[in-house]
Predict the structure.
Amino acid sequence: MKTLNEIRSTFLNYFEKQGHTVVPSSPLVPRNDPTLMFANSGMVQFKNCFTGVEKRDYVRATTAQKCVRAGGKHNDLDNVGYTARHHTFFEMLGNFSFGDYFKSEAIPFAWELVTKHFDISPERLYTTVYHTDDEAFELWKKIGVPESRIIRIATSDNFWQMGPTGPCGPCTEIFFDHGEKFWGGPPGSPEEDGDRFIEIWNVVFMQNEQFEDGSMRALDMQSIDTGMGIERVAALLQGTNDNYATDLMRSLIEASANATSSDPDGPGKTHHRVIADHLRSTSFLIADGVMPSNDGRGYVLRRILRRAARHAHLLGVQDPLMHRLVPELVRQMGEAYPELREAQPLIEETLKLEETRFRQTLDRGLKLLDEELTGLPEGAELPG
Ligand code: SER
């Protein structure tokens, strides 16, 4: 079985061999972009390289990027814990070309990595292209994907935009068929939102820039931006379609179960999943300098942490929990992201303090509610 840490290094090593510079993940707080709350994909740190405003000493790069989607255009917070694939924090693997190679190399790279290095059977793969993109369609055909499994999509699913403004372009995606035991249909079908056909890689052909007034211009150079959700690939390589059953997430779920003396798969299952996910986002945000507060990024952090604390409360836990799980997170991810290890004391202290305060508020609120309810005549309603 390939662990998540092995999948990350297989990806980065493959692209390094193809002449890409391995660039560290940028912080979750974008340094170059006031329009964006958090890094939400691998291309964020390269945004200005696509538009030509910034030049680096490489034209090919590969990264494992920390991402948070919990505010703004891409916001998954309310679904987390209840589904197999929503996260507030996830890692996106990517390869990038800044005016160097384009479609005719990006597509074979993706195919070779997926079918030869990850050993995924081509029979289980589908691809999508933007409906007008004949060139991408032909490239997939040439590589051996049967026409019946190259699907043209006319919606924004195959036209990627970082946000309301910025570089963007049509994209091609690779889907994995988890098999008949799951409900769902191929991309573009009415059943596409099922659990059977899962997108694993998005390859964006960066060729436009979008402006605030809705207009768009063609970029001077044609570039590549790709994003592969490591948790999804880990799931399929580990024979599951639930991201939370993969080695890394499972270790955090078990840490939560041990710390609360409860069954990881029992009635508190959803709570453990929420806690495992939120442990990652809150810890990484604190490591990158975000502190709980009442506005902006700090407020998003506070909301995530309070959501985790609420789920810990539902597990019947009396004392703050999250800070006790940080050592397991550092064990799992500290090597790939040394900033996590360095910030461990700060993360633990911040989580503990914030959770303690929230619990006091929660206890006070519950006590007040109790008092009001006790004094309420039978059959009466408590006014809103
Ligand atoms: N930017 C694209 C995405 O987020 C590819 O990296 O899917």
